[in-house]
Amino acid sequence: MPETRDERRAAGARAAGKPGKAVPRARTPGLLPARGAQGSVGACPRHPERRDEDAALLLLAALAACAPRRDAAPLPGDTVAPDVALLRGAFVAGAQPDGNSVLLRAPQGLIVFDSGRHAAHTQRILDAAREVRQPIAAIVNSHWHLDHVAGNALLRDAWPRAEVYASDAIEGAMRGFLADYRAQLEGALAQAPDGSADAAGWREEIARIDAGARLFPTRPVTATGARTLAGRRVTLGLERNAVSGGDVWLYDPATRTLLAGDLVTLPAPLLDTACAEGWREALARLDALPFATLVPGHGAPMTHAQFAAWRGAYAGLLACAAGDATDADCKAGWLRDAGPLIPEADRALAANLLDYYLPQVLRAPAARRARYCDAEAGR
Ligand SMILES: [Zn+2]
């Protein structure tokens, strides 16, 4: 897609909304649950038809069997809280990233928060479900960028009854941003020399976009509110004018864990489709939640105090960009303010990202800066 080497590097480093479909994959027969088998794993009875005492006892036993057990095997991945685990997404310069995925154990199966871009990332989610012998009962997408949503196709192939909770902003993105991106990819492919090392990756991106409605929500999130997902009570929040025109966060009151998606990212905010000012306001709403641990869309989990520092660094970056300081000073300000949260190995990536976002987004002409600030009107 990008025309120049620098742009390619920047675009590769930016996680951005580069969609991806699930890629031709070799499914190993027998490893994934067959469609017919889904209901038998962790399916909890909801509508008992028999009313006699024996049936009631059987129902109780079945419910106990399908409820998350305290002595159940830990979820694969990095433990965030009891029954909450993180599968870190790769985010390295020069390659399209995967967002973080989080698994939550629920009475009726697993809740998956964000499904990744590359098939290898999504396969880790499927492997985790197989390992703990629970179905994937619900998928939540923080937003429509491909590094968070493209894995939906693979997950739904394996678990077709899983409900998908997300903003409907992906439908507009398919007609706009993602359609434009697809055209860029086609153009790049048409000009690519034989044997281009990039061509295979571009074709995979096109295939991800072409998954189309298979990436869409089955249960659109249209407002912030309490929801029961797979039997687990959580709050799903919706921010319209922040990162993507439809950002969904999940707050789990049982563990005081907030899954923020790309409303919080390390090593820098990812501003490709952002309304920078609206994002700042959304961060204030997140700060008001009583979470103890926040899982960002990219990077390591953080405490509430660490999030407050990130939020301050974000506000500082916007204030700097609106003032007279040089781009270099604004970049240095971010690296200073968010520095304790940024692993040493990621500082160069942070600098690279801001070298792009400061001139191209935060200090772009007013029309460019406002492009993503009226999500309701654009729907
Ligand atoms: Zn992302």
What does this structure look like?
The protein has one domain: Ribonuclease Z/Hydroxyacylglutathione hydrolase-like (Metallo-beta-lactamase, Chain A), CATH 3.60.15.10. The chain contains 13 helices and 13 strands. It is 38% helix and 17% strand. The chain is of the alpha/beta class and 379 residues long. It has helices spanning 5-13, 53-66, 119-131, 146-149, 152-158, 169-175, 177-191, 199-210, 276-287, 304-322, 327-337, 347-362, 366-370; strands spanning 78-81, 84-87, 101-106, 109-113, 136-140, 163-166, 219-220, 225-229, 232-239, 247-252, 257-265, 293-298, 302-303. Helix 3 runs parallel beside helix 5 (152-158) and helix 9 (276-287) packs antiparallel against helix 10. The strands form 2 sheets. The protein has a 7-stranded mixed β-sheet with strand order 1-2-3-4-5-6-7, with helices on one face. Strands 8-9-10-11-12-13 form a 6-stranded mixed β-sheet, covered by helices on one side. The longest helix is centred in the last third of the chain and has 19 residues, at 304-322. Helix 9 links the parallel strand 11 and strand 12 (293-298). The protein is globular, with a radius of gyration of 21 Å. It starts with a helix and ends in a 9-residue tail after the last helix. It binds zinc ion (ZN). Residues 15, 99, 145, 147-148, 262, 270, 297-298 line the site of zinc ion (ZN).
